[in-house]
């Protein structure tokens, strides 16, 4: 047995035990359990419609679960697939949306914009931003709250491939720096491997397999073992690679 790390000994940030959730007579989650330790980055991987967003919404407090236990900190924020900026408010105000615009908060918003590569853009209107820039603002808005839990619901899915790669690197860097516990919901296997400490695969309403990602950071697709690990996850998802095997 390996020596427990500080992370292992700390109280978990998120504890989900035996959660069940149905819509009408359709069971979406059954007996779903997952733990996130402080600072841990977990990717929840699953086929379309498998219940990933439902679980994330339960953790965000946006959806009720039917059975089981959910413990998540109140200091949590969500970044959705679309940036959800308020068009009538400038970028700086969007970053501190819902909070009183004190001088300190405005300074924190400016610092968060610098962190996401949008320093000095406080006065810009959301309609003047590209999709990637708007998603950077959404990320700044999440980080400025210093969350203990960051919930990412396919935050790169609507971005073009190049912007997605840049945003993945930015999220990896910022999460490393700020150390929230992160749950990333995705159906992109590569993204899960590039970003997460651990990948949980959602199968039949529960976590079927959980695997530690065995690669050092910064991660690269080309490292030895990447292709095998990727194939293993794809098989768990019931996908056989036919074209362009890594
Ligand atoms: N409010 C709702 N009422 C009824 N059914 C719902 C509701 N929300 C989600 N569902 C259903 O629950 C199932 C799981 O949805 P969910 O969005 O959690 O899946 P997902 O794994 O995130 O899928 P995707 O990757 O396509 O976003 C889907 O079949 C969906 O239609």
Biggest sheet layout = 6 strands, mixed
- Averaged pLDDT: 93
Give the helix proportion (percent range). Answer: 25-40%
Provide the low-confidence segments as ranges. Answer: none
CATH class label of the largest domain: Alpha Beta
- Assign the structural class, choosing from mainly alpha, mainly beta, alpha/beta, alpha+beta, or little secondary structure: alpha/beta
Q: Counting H and I runs of at least 4 residues, what is the number of helices?
A: 8
Number of E strands: 9
Order of helices and strands: HEEEHEEHHHEHEHEEH
Count of domains: 2
Adjacency order of strands in the biggest sheet: 5-6-7-3-8-9
The CATH superfamily of the largest domain is identified as P-loop containing nucleotide triphosphate hydrolases
Overall CATH architecture of the largest domain: 3-Layer(aba) Sandwich
Based on Cα principal axes, name the global outline.
globular
Instruction: Identify the bound ligands.
Output: adenosine-5'-triphosphate
Reported by name, the CATH topology of the largest domain is Rossmann fold
Strand percentage lies at 15-25%
- Compute the CA-based radius of gyration: 18 Å
Query: How far apart are the first and last residues' alpha carbons, in Å?
Result: 33 Å
């Amino acid at each position: 047995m390996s020596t427990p790390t500080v992370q292992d000994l700390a109280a978990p940030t998120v504890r989900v035990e035996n959660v069940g959730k149905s819509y009408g007579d359709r069971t979406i989650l059954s007996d779903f359990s997952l733990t996130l330790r402080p600072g841990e980055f977990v990717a929840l991987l699953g086929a379309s419609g498998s219940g990933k967003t439902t679980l994330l919404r339960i953790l965000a407090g946006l959806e009720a679960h039917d059975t089981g236990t959910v413990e998540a900190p109140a200091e949590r924020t969500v970044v959705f697939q679309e940036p959800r900026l308020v068009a009538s408010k400038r970028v700086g105000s969007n970053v501190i949306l819902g909070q009183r615009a004190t001088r300190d908060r405005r300074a924190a918003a400016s610092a968060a914009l610098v962190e996401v590569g949008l320093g000095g853009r406080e006065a810009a209107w959301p309609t003047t931003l590209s999709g990637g820039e708007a998603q950077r603002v959404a990320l700044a808005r999440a980080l400025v709250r210093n969350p203990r839990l960051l919930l990412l619901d396919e935050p790169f899915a609507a971005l073009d491939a190049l912007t997605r790669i840049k945003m993945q690197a930015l999220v990896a860097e910022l999460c490393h720096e700020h150390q929230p516990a992160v749950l990333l919901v995705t159906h992109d296997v590569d993204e899960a491997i590039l970003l997460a400490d651990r990948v949980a695969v959602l199968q039949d309403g529960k976590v079927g397999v959980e695997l530690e990602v065995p690669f050092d950071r910064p991660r690269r697709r080309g490292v030895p073992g990447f292709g095998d690990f990727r194939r293993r996850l794809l098989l768990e998802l019931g996908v056989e690679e036919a074209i362009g095997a890594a």
